Amino acid sequence: MAILEDIGASLLKGRARPLMEQINTALSEGVSASDILNEGMLPSMSKLGELFKNNQVFVPEVMRSAQAFNQALATLKPLMLNDAVQTRGTAVIGTVSGDKHDIGKNLVAIMLQGAGLNVIDLGSEVTAEQFCDAVVEHDAQIVAMSALLTTTMPYQGEVIRMLEERGLRSKVKVMVGGAPVTEEFAKSIGADAYTPDAGSAASRAIELLG
Ligand code: B1M
Q1: Which of 76, 102, 152, 182 could share a disulfide with 124, CB 3.0–4.6 Å?
Q2: CB of 178 sitting under 6 A from ligand 1
Q3: Model's pTM, two decimal places?
Q4: How crowded is residue 7: how many other Cβ atoms within 10 Å of its Cβ?
Q5: Residues ≥6 apart with Cβ < 8 Å to 17
Q6: Quick one: which atom of ligand 1 is closest to the CA of 150?
């Protein structure tokens, strides 16, 4: 669909204003928020990753696209949430310490909310102590951690260790994810679940809550 291609192109160039205009046009033409996200926006983020890896774009360009993505997500979010009463349980979510990447984490947060969970989003660069404090403060049943860097993913294990030290581990289910994270890695650090994307994170959270 041409409008989805236009959305992808604006996002890739980090052009927030045309992106928002195109999103509004698509919505008014009846394109669903999830199609805009999955077919228009996410492929561009993958493409951006390729370009970044090959030194064809650099941090400032990637930053601009990421900001445009988060702005667009704020518009799409209310349209992606259903009217589920949020009584299934509480999840605290964040990207781990040292890691600024928040786009995937934001998507997971939206999907968890859409599945009827009360979601406490701690943002990015979240320390083990902040995760543990939030579990206590919000009486959470799920800790959901995102990591996008090979250097930060081991910190997910640090968080689990602190949950153990503070006597909180048996009270919560720990979910991990992010591009470099694998099922095997999740098992090695003692997480309860790994899921590769935001949609499966939501269904797994429901399973974990029983
Ligand atoms: Co960064 N970056 N970045 N970056 N960045 C990556 C991750 C990288 C793979 C790029 C590359 O080289 N190809 C590379 C990591 C290499 C590695 O570790 N092996 C990298 C690097 C190196 C860096 C810097 C070190 C660059 C530098 O400064 N020299 C630096 C680190 C900064 C820091 O964090 N301390 C850096 C900085 C940045 C920006 C700030 C410019 C920006 C982030 C802005 C922001 O997030 N607000 C940025 C971006 C945008 C990217 C890429 C291009 C895109 C990431 C993204 O948003 N993807 C990325 C390349 C790539 O991933 N291909 C890259 C879209 C998003 C929807 O996917 O987050 O994977 P993702 O989430 C997915 C799944 O992983 C999953 O669900 C989502 C889909 O449904 N998921 C979960 C995520 N969390 C989950 C949790 C779950 C379950 C599933 O359960 C709890």
Answers
A1: 102
A2: yes
A3: 0.91
A4: 27
A5: none
A6: 18
- Which tokens is 196 given? 């590769």
Residue 179 has pLDDT above 60, yes or no: yes
What are the φ and ψ backbone dihedral angles of 91, each rounded to 5 degrees? -120, 135
**Residue 181 carries which DSSP code?**
-
> Is residue 48 lining ligand 1, measured as CB closer than 6 Å?
yes
pLDDT in tens, 52-62: 989 999 999 99
Return all residues near 124 (Cβ < 8 A) that are at least 6 apart. 94, 95, 99, 100, 101, 102, 105
Q: Are 73 and 79 within 8 A, CB to CB?
A: no
Please indicate whether residue 121, judged by its CB atom, sits closer than 6 Å to ligand 1.
Answer: no
Q: How far is the CA of 186 from the centre of ligand 1 (A)?
A: 18
The owner of tokens 């959470």 is: 140
Query: Position of tokens 């579990």?
Result: 135
